[in-house]
């Protein structure tokens, strides 16, 4: 990529810095870490965005899940991509511009009394309909966490440390726990093993990720097979009538569609208010409203 004023980094100390973690989510809303995005402001009114892919995290993702970060050439495998005095498309496609008529209301909806599109994104944690990526706030300082209790409350990154008693803490008995352990290892958080007074090595992590990924494939396949077998048995006994459509109040759905398409609420909030767990069902309902088919 040719260097120009828009991708040449500002090597000064910023007076303001905000950081978000970029995550990719699958059809079941399981999230996996792929990088971070930094926003910096400087005294001379200049600013820059820095997108940093976490290549170890990306390389350990399930196949076919991640299609790249919009607006940057990931084939270059750069440590950091800079956008100086310009808003990268990754941000502009999922945040409101300052020229929007309702921008003040959108800022107020997340507790902001001034325009800050990046802070708005971090507070809303909105999902963009054009991809399967979302941005969540990264801790301003590295975190050190003991054990697995309440670990879901932390957005862990390769800068953080998770302290465990021993590797036996990673024992798992069902698909849900296996998936959580896989997501934890995939974040490349530093794992300190107290009983051995050492950190988990990269080769150990890669071996565990490979093993867990294959276990999850087998578990998911078995779940699907058991579900299909149960359905066929029900059909044979004439007990199966298909899945009943989720009933949703039309007027409520229409209101939520308006709020969602105008970025007043996130995808997760919209689905929660409709009591819908499936993204495909959610978007199918919205399509029916748009086409006046409900």
Secondary-structure map:
Layout: E1 16-25, E2 31-41, E3 47-53, H1 55-59, E4 81-84, H2 89-92, H3 103-108, H4 117-124, E5 133-137, E6 144-146, E7 161-164, H5 175-186, E8 190-193, E9 198-199, H6 202-236, H7 250-261, H8 267-274, H9 279-290
Parallel strand pairs: 6-7, 7-8
Antiparallel strand pairs: 1-2, 1-5, 2-3, 3-4, 8-9
Tell me about this structure.
- The protein is an alpha+beta fold.
- 35% of the residues lie in helices and 17% in strands.
- It has 9 helices and 9 strands.
- It has helices at 55-59, 89-92, 103-108, 117-124, 175-186, 202-236, 250-261, 267-274, 279-290; strands at residues 16-25, 31-41, 47-53, 81-84, 133-137, 144-146, 161-164, 190-193, 198-199.
- The strands form 2 sheets. Strands 4-3-2-1-5 form a 5-stranded antiparallel beta sheet. Strands 6-7-8-9 form a 4-stranded mixed beta sheet, with no helix packed on it.
- The chain is globular, with a radius of gyration of 22 Å.
Number of helices: 9
What is the overall pLDDT average?
A: 87
Percent in strands = 15-25%
List segments where confidence is low: pLDDT < 50 over at least 5 consecutive residues: none
In terms of structural class, how would the helical and strand content be classed?
alpha+beta
**Rough outline:** globular
Biggest β-sheet: count, sense, barrel? 5 strands, antiparallel
Strand order of the largest sheet: 4-3-2-1-5
Separation of the first and last Cα atoms: 49 Å
Q: How many E strands?
A: 9
Q: Kindly provide the radius of gyration, computed on alpha-carbon positions and rounded to a whole number of angstroms.
A: 22 Å
Helix and strand succession?
Answer: EEEHEHHHEEEHEEHHHH
The level of helicity is 25-40%
Structural domain tally: 3
């Amino acid at each position: 990529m040719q260097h120009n004023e828009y991708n040449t980094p500002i090597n000064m100390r910023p007076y303001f810095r905000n950081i978000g973690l970029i995550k990719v989510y699958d059809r079941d809303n399981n999230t996996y870490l792929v990088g971070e995005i930094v926003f910096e402001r400087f005294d001379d009114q200049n600013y820059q965005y820095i997108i940093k892919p976490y290549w170890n995290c990306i390389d350990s993702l399930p196949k076919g899940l991640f299609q790249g970060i919009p607006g940057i050439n990931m084939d270059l495998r750069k440590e950091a991509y800079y956008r100086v005095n310009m808003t990268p498309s990754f941000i502009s496609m999922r945040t409101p511009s300052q020229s929007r008529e309702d921008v003040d209301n959108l800022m107020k909806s997340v507790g902001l009394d001034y325009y800050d599109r990046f802070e708005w994104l971090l507070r809303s944690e909105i999902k963009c309909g054009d991809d399967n990526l979302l941005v969540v706030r990264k801790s301003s300082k590295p975190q050190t966490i003991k054990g697995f209790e309440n670990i879901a409350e932390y957005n862990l990154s390769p800068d953080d440390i998770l302290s465990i008693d021993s590797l036996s803490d990673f024992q798992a008995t069902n698909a849900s726990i296996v998936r959580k352990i896989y997501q934890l290892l995939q974040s490349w958080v530093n794992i300190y093993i107290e009983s051995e007074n050492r950190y988990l090595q990269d080769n150990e992590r890669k071996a565990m990720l490979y093993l867990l990924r294959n276990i999850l494939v087998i578990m998911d396949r078995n779940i699907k097979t058991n579900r299909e077998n149960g359905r066929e048995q029900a059909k044979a006994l004439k007990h199966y009538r298909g899945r009943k459509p989720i009933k949703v109040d039309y007027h409520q759905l229409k209101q939520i569609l308006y709020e969602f398409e105008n970025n007043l609420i996130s995808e997760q909030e919209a689905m929660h208010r409709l009591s819908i767990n499936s993204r495909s069902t959610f978007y199918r309902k919205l399509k029916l409203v748009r086409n006046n088919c409900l």
